[in-house]
Amino acid sequence: METILLEKRDRLALVTINRPKALNALNNQVFEELDLCFRDLADDDDVAVVILTGSGEKAFVAGADIKELATLDTMAARLLSQRGQRVFNAIESLSKPVIAAVNGFALGGGCELAMACHVRIASEKARFGLPEVGLGLIPGYAGTQRLPRLVGKGIAMEMVLSGEMISAARAAEIGLVNHVTAPEALLEKAEALADSIKSKAPLAVRHAMEAVNRGFEMNREDGERFEAALFGLLAGTEDTGEGLRAFIEKRKPDFKGR
Ligand code: CAA
């Protein structure tokens, strides 16, 4: 892969989008390689948590590649939107947590990519926005769907209609990001969260994500039924026995992922 750097260590995968000269804009090659990369991560049992970031000082991802967009006709643009939605859905439905470490501009498709991740942490230098209306477009990688779910319809509508950028501090205020850090502390903060998740029972983490993600799209009653089913399923695993015993015996649990 040329446009994606993938580093694995100690059950953590660090994925870096690497087109710094184009502010990591998502062209066809980035999408193909991002897709490949997340297929690999889905199949790799040694990876428990993923951190996703952008290369260089300036950008997480500055959006879809505008030079490529300029060449598209109606049908090609629709297919491009659907492909982007599919790849981002694969990230959202990965069975391991993906933490976006947003190091700079997260605009258009870049903001949509960050929103497909499970947790967002931003550097003070990060800027968020959906500027597509200024290009005569609308967000095409599920931004019109994920943003209202994350921050509420009113604030999402303002961002989508004005296309204006917001600061990292404002993104934290509206719930678009969970934490804001100094630029040099960003990866450290993301890794500390990854370490905390890695120390927990892997099957519990996986089922908790499923309960939140799937339950979010269900009505309350179905969501609770789904939660109870997963709760019951976990109770039969070795790790649940170990976690409960360890608490009673006042020691650290030794989870095996079974
Ligand atoms: N696509 C392609 N190239 C891009 C790009 C993009 N989205 N964003 C930046 N670049 C390129 C620039 O063309 C420039 O390349 P050259 O040096 O070859 O000219 C290089 O990256 C550096 O960018 P700037 O010189 O513009 O840097 P700046 O500091 O002056 O401005 C910026 C930074 C405000 C992020 C500005 O680059 C910008 O506004 N980028 C576009 C942001 C945008 O509109 N994103 C939405 C894209 S549409 C979309 O994403 C659709 C969708 O949902 C499916």
Describe the protein:
This protein is of the alpha/beta class. The chain folds into 2 domains: 4-198, 2-enoyl-CoA Hydratase, Chain A, domain 1 (Alpha-Beta Complex), CATH 3.90.226; 202-248, Orthogonal Bundle (Lyase 2-enoyl-coa Hydratase, Chain  A, domain 2). The protein contains 11 helices and 10 strands. It has helices at residues 28-43, 66-69, 74-92, 109-116, 143-151, 153-162, 168-173, 186-198, 202-216, 220-235, 238-248, and strands at residues 4-9, 12-17, 49-54, 59-61, 98-102, 105-107, 119-123, 127-129, 166-167, 179-181. A 6-stranded mixed β-sheet has the order 1-2-3-5-7-10, with helices on both faces. β2, α1 and β3 (49-54) form a beta-alpha-beta unit. α4 packs across α5 (143-151) and α5 (143-151) packs across α6. The protein starts with a strand and ends in a 10-residue tail after the last helix. It binds acetoacetyl-coenzyme A (CAA). Acetoacetyl-coenzyme A binds at residues 22-23, 25, 62-67, 84, 105, 107-109, 112, 131-132, 135, 137, 139-141, 143.
